[in-house]
Amino acid sequence: xxxxxxxxxxxxxxxxxxxxxxxxxxxxxxxxxxxxxxxxxxxxxxxxxxxxxxxxxxxxxxxxxxxxxxxxxxxxxxxxxxxxxxxxxxxxxxxxxxxxxxxxxxxxxxxxxxxxxxxxxxxxxxxxxxxxxxxxxxxxxxxxxxxxxxxxxxxxxxxxxxxxxxxxxxxxxxxxxxxxxxxxxxxxxxxxxxxxxxxxxxxxxxxxxxxxxxxxxxxxxxxxxxxxxxxxxxxxxxxxxxxxxxxxxxxxxxxxxxxxxxxxxxxxxxxxxxxxxxxxxxxxxxxxxxxxxxxxxxxxxxxxxxxxxxxxxxxxxxxxxxxxxxxxxxxxxxxxxxxxxxxxxxxxxxxxxxxxxxxxxxxxxxxxxxxxxxxxxxxxxxxxxxxxxxxxxxxxxxxxxxxxxxxxxxxxxxxxxxxxxxxxxxxxxxxxxxxx
Length: 436
Hints:
This protein is α/β, with parallel strands linked by helices and about 425 residues long. It has helices spanning about 45-50, 60-65, 85-95, 120-125, 125-130, 165-170, 200-210, 225-235, 265-275, 300-310, 335-340, 345-350, 360-375, 390-395, 405-415, and strands spanning about 5-15, 15-25, 30, 70-75, 105-110, 135, 145-155, 155-165, 170-180, 180, 185, 240-245, 255-260, 275-280, 285-290, 310-320, 380-385, 400, 420, 430. The protein has two domains: about 5-30 and about 280-430, 2-enoyl-CoA Hydratase, Chain A, domain 1; about 45-275, Rossmann fold (3-Layer(aba) Sandwich), CATH 3.40.50.11440. It is about 35% helix and about 25% strand. Strands 3-19-15-16-17-18 form a six-stranded parallel beta sheet, with helices on both faces. The longest helix is centred in the last third of the chain and has 16 residues, at about 360-375.
């Protein structure tokens, strides 16, 4: 007679809904909870304080005195930064320093992402802000909008700086963003609003492929060639001041950092480590991970695989739940070409490819190399509505119709396998016991 097996119900966020499955309770080693942190008491008062008493550097009002034209760089709809709350206070600060709304412009810093729709723009910045200042969007494909500056060294390569000319035409540049763990830059925020935010594809290829060709994925490691290259670009083009928010996946704000693009960012990084770090007592056989809240497409959802990579043992299985409602990716048709390669081949080809070869698309190579590295360590089962069977095959994933089936298959293949759960894989930083 077999003994009774206790099962636990797990729930993973998936787009606007939740997926459920049951797992053997005694095999679960971690469930991906974040540390409880206190939210700031008053967002507006904290923001005002950070504008006048920044984390690092002089007050924005001091920097803005005597300036003639302000450009505010804002992240796009793939990021949860509450810019609709920040912008009115920021504009009031700039107005008081002598810059009227007529001399302030917003530039949506979308990097190589698709352009936002008018409705998405309104939701992002708010209707009142949209009536106050001019808003434009960075389009990395528009070479006429770019200015090329002297190259910088990134990961042993000379990387040209291709920057949106609006950045150089302004004499005050302020960047907004959020800080979360990131697979290439270590963490989001800071200089990322400039690079890749408002750069051309050659510059973005140069910084990102530097991360891909490291010995390991630099998740949670800000002092890496990619991040340092981004910061060199930001310094070179004159990013004067940043405002970065550290928040939960649900939008609870823990702190705001401001001021110098490097020093303020690093202060925010330490807060993010606490806010987004997940204790992993040991690497497990099966990691069940949701890409939430980074689930708009696979390009964003892959962040969850990177998190799972650091929590799964070699030879294990990753079960990924990723809605990917907009499919595989926008603007990177060469992704499938790179994704079909094994890890070593992709790295070798990337090393031989010139940064300026836009047809090759080294930005896509960066993401595909991370995917190949993860596949070498663990097999991947995916539950998704937005990807086709062909997409899943190209990426090297096995597709299952629902989460329970995916979990059952994984546990059948590794009898008595240990389990870890990462419900917010898109923004978490697994911290393996003894590794830090």
